[in-house]
Design a protein that fits this description.
This protein is mostly helical. It is elongated, with a radius of gyration of 19 Å. The chain folds into two domains: about 50 residues, Arc Repressor Mutant, subunit A, CATH 1.10.10.60; about 140 residues, Tetracycline Repressor, domain 2, CATH 1.10.357.10.
Length: about 210
């Protein structure tokens, strides 16, 4: 890679990292592009060499988060079939990975939520986010359907509902505002979803 490309990659990475910091401090809607460039130690003009707008930068961060999630899920079940989400252990492991990705990208999650809410319900943006970002859930649910398991509803809807619960919790449970540990959240979500997927006879392991 040439020097120019290396510097461009470094600037893009710096802008992304600065955006995450500023979004965490001020929120997405209260952040200006000049806030991001100042935090990155870059000239304002450099921003537009990489992103057309603040929203485009946010979507780049979203793509990074989805890539991180895909890699984490691949590591969790390399080369195997989709998780059987009626199995307590597999369900919990899957939720733990999703929760870890959401928590490690808390500022991006919050920014995406703020952006979608600001766009208004008529835009359909929040629904599009849920459907796109819960494709992995949907694949697991469709797999269960192929195994003749009766689902509580359409896989698209159930996957979006699962993602909506998880993402809202990740957005709302800020450090210092809640005494719930990650394990408590994951256990509660496992029990809640298990009964919806496997029926009231489902029990948590151990």
């Amino acid at each position: 890679m040439g020097v120019r490309k290396v510097k461009a990659a470094e600037t893009e990475a710096a802008l992304k990292a600065a955006a995450i910091r500023v979004f965490a401090e001020r929120g997405y809607l209260n952040t200006k592009i000049t806030d991001i460039t100042a935090a990155a130690g870059r000239a304002t003009g450099s921003f537009y060499q990489h992103f057309a707008s603040k929203e485009e930068l946010l979507q780049a961060l979203r793509a990074d988060m989805r890539e991180q999630a895909s890699e984490a899920f691949a590591d969790e079940a390399p080369g195997g079939p989709p998780h059987d989400l009626t199995d307590p252990g597999q369900l919990r492991a899957h939720l733990a990975v999703a929760w870890a990705v959401m928590r490690s990208n808390r500022a991006t999650q919050g920014a995406l939520f703020e952006s979608a809410v600001a766009a208004g319900p008529a835009s359909g943006e929040l629904w599009e986010q849920l459907v796109t970002d819960t494709a992995m859930y949907r694949e697991h649910l469709e797999y269960l359907g192929e195994q003749q398991h009766t689902l509580p509803g359409d896989p698209v809807l159930i996957a979006a509902a699962m993602g909506g619960i998880m993402s809202m919790l990740a957005y709302a449970l800020r450090p210092g505002y809640s005494d719930f540990s990650d394990d408590e959240v994951i256990d509660a979500m496992t029990a809640l979803l298990l009964h919806g997927l496997a029926g009231p006879g489902g029990v948590l392991p151990g």
